[in-house]
Amino acid sequence: MDSVYEDVRSILENRRIRSEILQEQRNEQIRQQYPELAKIEKEIEDTTEQLLLNSLDGKSSEDLERELRILNRKKENILASCGISTDEFEAKPYCSKCGDTGYIHETGKDGSEKVILCECIRSLIAPVMLSRSGVEKYPAYSFEKGSDEFFSSDPRMLETYTKLKLLTEKERIPNAVFYGRSGKGKTFTAVAIARKYAQKGRSSFVIRMAEAQELMMEHRKMIQAFYTPVDKERAVEQKVDYLTEADLLVLDDLGVEPRTANTEADLLNLLDKRSLAGKTTIITTNFDMESLKERYGGRFFDRIDRNFARFHFSMEGSRT
Ligand SMILES: [Zn+2]
After folding, report:
1. What total number of domains does the chain contain?
2. What are the pLDDT digits (tens) for 161-205?
């Protein structure tokens, strides 16, 4: 997304350097205590250097390689006789899971390898993701503060809520429409999902549909205008980026925004861009499917129909 990743990378880099320096200080003390260790390390260093020179000259170095193996074994033996394990002699990373690289290679069930963000990098990114996500406007809307009791009066609804919670935990929320009359927990659930994503270091963005529409209009005007003040341009661009690039976007309360000539086209454009990039969108609305079709026309409804899972929030109770 942007500079936050660079900042985080430099934090990880500093952690790596710091642990190497600390280890080197420890090793220096050990060497002073055991001079034969320093001697063998020097020999290893010289041999390694000679190996490198040979390989640059294209010379064979089988003898040197054998020698290096013997020297390394000797070093291990010396360490062992001093009661020091080889591990103790190596710099320990701050995060042992990723070795302070920030990434972990994971092999899927089908044998495919994928790279995922380590927990250490996620926890560094999370505060930034939270402040950008817009969920702070809804302090009480989170899975932790819970709503199991709220949904528990309706077993079907409780099942839906529990399922969504589980999918969130696995970061596998599909494109979804939460529909049903107001006060049934749609916004609560959508915000709780966005919050959880941000806490896990994924980008998420919650915006009311009326505000999103205004933003898209402003963006279009800006592109057509000859001049826009830099500050304003930056602010609008940044929000439009969140809208199109957030891993998870919540468009809250579709249907209450004023109607304009461009609403349907803007929405279609946004949804298409997002689904092309593999990003997830959750739409909440008080409308039922028929009314959505009437209001936004066939093409928009078609997208929803084909690409979005529907969740009907219908139980008794009161919450937005
Ligand atoms: Zn890590």
Report:
1. 2
2. 999 999 999 999 999 999 998 888 999 999 999 999 999 999 999
| pLDDT (tens digit per residue) in 203-241 | 999 999 999 999 999 999 998 888 888 898 898 999 999
Q: What is the largest CA-CA distance in the chain?
A: 85
Whole domain around residue 281: which residue ranges? 125-312
What is the CA(121)–ligand 1 centre distance, in A?
6
Per-residue confidence (pLDDT) for residue 58, from 0 to 100? 82
How far, in Å, is the centroid of ligand 1 from the Cα of 120? Answer: 4
- CA 243 to ligand 1 center in whole angstroms: 29
281 beta partners: 249
Do 145 and 279 belong to one domain? Answer: yes
